[in-house]
UniProtKB/TrEMBL annotation:
GO terms for biological process: phosphoenolpyruvate-dependent sugar phosphotransferase system; trehalose transport. PROSITE patterns: PTS_EIIA_TYPE_1, PTS_EIIA_TYPE_1_HIS, PTS_EIIB_TYPE_1, PTS_EIIB_TYPE_1_CYS, PTS_EIIC_TYPE_1. This is PTS beta-glucoside transporter subunit EIIBCA. SUPFAM superfamilies: Duplicated hybrid motif, Glucose permease domain IIB. GO terms for cellular component: plasma membrane. Residues 502-606 form the PTS EIIA type-1 domain. It comes from Siccibacter turicensis. Residues 8-90 form the PTS EIIB type-1 domain. The chain crosses the membrane at residues 102-134, 146-167, 212-231, 243-264, 289-316, 328-346, 358-377, 384-408, 428-452.
Length: 631
């Protein structure tokens, strides 16, 4: 993945590739992903977006087009919001969304915007736990008391946060939603629920009320806002415009809150407790089995972006029991994947992969594993499997100590291990440490032992290239004659140049090099260079590199006959470009349908002046993977 700085350009490129503003129904983000709900997914959009500099991967799951960007996702989301508006609503699509997709999309839209708020409070709780163990007397101080109630604030008022994010997702008035959800956590209702729990009967009209309280609840406020979005639209249509601004909030308020207290709240709360009870039954019956499942498959769940669906279960456990085992095992699954990417860092001899894996590993320390998964471990498969195995075994070890989490961790990871500390269960934290250590050591050892297909041994290269900033049109030339690494300008299948079905290319009349059969319709710069030639028919580009090498990228055979049709240049002659900068787009399907061979020679025109080393002679290759080096 290329490093990006022009977030506006990346947002614009993503918007273009997914079909423009009218095709986006809604959008949100989580810690690493831009999540788009599209009316329909344009053909080739996934591969086109995935090839953009700054994009780690694209996942289509849960009814969403998820663009994995990493730690800069907030900047790209802000850039997209500036172009579309935070409350953007596209033209409604005709596609029917599956109920499972709708559930996952709703959960991610509701919880992703507040994940860092919950994470901050969880970290503060962990710190207070440690401080309290070091000095029990500090718990009587005013400072401790204030920080303690601060750490519980977002959980006590969780329905209010859900009101805001859910109102945005369901497209209803956020202030009415906030009003209704605040009524659920009004201390007066909590007192009334306590009286009901003690045997008193309280009715609303003819309907008896239950003892359900809603602080820290998830599903009741979520379904409240969903029902509100349905009711609000109908009330607004029925009321005259002159009184609608006043009476719409009133009507919604007096209907939705009692309806929630009578029906929505008790039913949805029962659903959450039932689901949590199912997992807890497994945990109580066979803790090692529950641990192995969570530790082993959690990162697989993350791949598909549906991991927010478990949040109500976890919150229900904390609310009813004051602790949760799921997050204890979930944390070790995250640590296993973190260890896998550090294992790759230790084993690889590829300088670029070493840099990428180190960066992804540091990010994983904080509980964000998507860069590690998509950028490194899943790419090479075996490290990902090692991480899952290590996570499963480490979680089983922790289960033998009875490890639990006593504070919620929005982003489970190495820094949330302190959430397993409890004065009443001293072995909990010890077990979490031992389980985590087991996952780390076992995973790293497995990665070293089973290995993976290291892209290239670059020990002979004297100067590694640095990934560029997208849209940067200037480059600092390297000294003439210095070693130069050429990255693949295309994603596709590599073939030997002499096998190309063209005598001039196969005979190396135009220079030595290699050829690629593309699987995506985009060409990017293989190194820092100047665009010397852009053929009028746009099917070929000539580049001049800083070390004096002259490159020619010729898209297809005999495609000059198309006279530019199906090709779109993205740069012009004289531009300085960085490695990874998009140079040219082409409609692969249309060109092949017209009967042309899209085999693309990548040539060093003055190859007689250089020693050319091919890093990959055949097989699949992705853009910006090492292709050749010149010395």
């Amino acid at each position: 993945m290329a490093v990006i700085r022009d977030y506006n350009k990346l947002a614009s490129d993503i918007l273009r590739e997914v079909g423009g503003e009218a095709n986006i129904t809604s959008f949100t983000r989580c810690a690493t992903r831009l999540r788009l709900v599209l009316n329909e997914t344009p053909e080739g959009a996934k591969s086109a977006v995935q090839s953009l500099p700054g994009v780690i991967a694209v996942v289509e799951s849960g009814g969403q087009f998820q663009v994995v960007i990493g730690t800069h996702v907030a900047d790209v989301h802000a850039a997209l919001a500036a172009q579309l508006g935070d409350e953007h609503t596209g033209t409604p699509g005709k596609q029917k969304t599956r109920w499972f997709d709708a559930v996952i999309a709703t959960m991610s839209a509701v919880f992703a915007p507040i994940v860092y708020i919950l994470a901050a409070a969880g970290i503060l709780q962990g710190i207070l736990i440690v401080v309290g163990l070091i000095d029990a007397g500090v718990k009587t101080s005013g400072a401790y008391s204030i920080l303690n109630f601060m750490s519980w604030t977002p959980f006590a008022f969780l329905p209010a946060f859900i009101a805001i994010t859910a109102a945005r997702h369901f497209k209803c008035n956020p202030f009415i939603a906030l009003l209704c959800c605040c009524a659920l956590i009004n201390p007066e209702w909590t007192a009334m629920a306590g009286r009901i729990a003690n045997g008193e009967s309280i009715n609303f009209l003819f309907f008896p009320l239950s003892e359900t309280v809603y602080t820290s609840s998830v599903l009741p406020p979520l379904f409240l806002v969903w029902a509100l979005s349905w009711l609000e639209k109908r009330v607004e249509r029925l009321l005259p415009d002159v009184i609608s601004p006043l009476f719409t909030p009133l009507v919604c308020f007096v209907i939705i809150v009692p309806l929630t207290l009578i029906v929505i709240g008790p039913v949805t709360n029962w659903v959450a407790l039932t689901i949590a009870g199912g997992y807890n039954t497994l945990f109580e019956t066979a803790p090692p089995l529950a641990a192995a499942l969570i530790g082993g498959i959690w990162q697989i769940v993350v791949i598909f972006g549906v991991h927010w669906g478990i949040t109500p279960v976890i919150m229900a456990n904390f609310d009813t029991q004051g602790y949760d085992s799921f997050q204890a095992y979930q944390t070790i699954a995250v640590i296993g994947q973190m260890a896998a990417v550090f294992g790759v860092f230790l084993k690889t001899r590829n300088r670029e992969l070493k840099t990428t894996s180190l960066s992804a590993g540091v990010t994983a320390i904080f509980g964000i594993t998507e860069p590690a998964i998509y950028g490194v471990t899943l790419r090479f498969k075996k490290p990902f499997i090692c991480g899952c195995i290590g996570g499963a075994i480490g979680a089983v070890v922790a289960s033998l100590f009875g490890s639990l989490y006593y504070a919620y961790a929005a982003l489970p990871g190495l820094f949330t291990l302190v959430n397993a500390i409890s004065p009443d269960a001293p072995m909990s934290f010890i077990g979490e440490l031992v389980g985590s250590a087991t996952a780390i050591v076992l995973t790293i050892v497995m990665v070293q032992f089973v290995g993976f297909e290291d892209p290239v041994n670059e020990e002979t290269l004297t100067e590694p290239e640095t990934a560029p900033a997208s849209g940067d049109t200037t480059a600092t030339p390297a000294p003439a004659g210095a070693a130069l690494r050429l990255l693949s300008p295309l994603s596709g299948d590599v073939i030997a140049l002499h096998t190309v079905n063209d005598e001039a290319f196969a005979g190396k009349v135009l220079g030595d090099g290699i050829a690629i059969r593309p699987t995506e319709g985009r060409v990017v710069a293989p190194c820092d260079a100047r665009v010397e030639t852009m053929i009028d028919s746009h099917h070929a580009i000539g580049l001049s590199c800083a070390n004096g090498a002259e490159l020619l990228i010729h898209v297809g055979l005999n495609t000059v006959a198309l006279k530019g049709q199906h090709f779109r240049p993205l740069v012009k002659e004289g531009d300085w470009v960085r490695a990874g900068t998009p140079l040219l787009e082409f409609d692969q399907a249309a060109i092949e349908q017209a009967g042309y061979d899209l085999t693309t020679p990548v040539l060093v025109v003055n190859s007689d002046e250089f020693q050319l080393t091919t890093h990959q002679a055949s097989g699949a290759i992705r853009q910006q993977m090492p292709l050749m080096s010149l010395a």
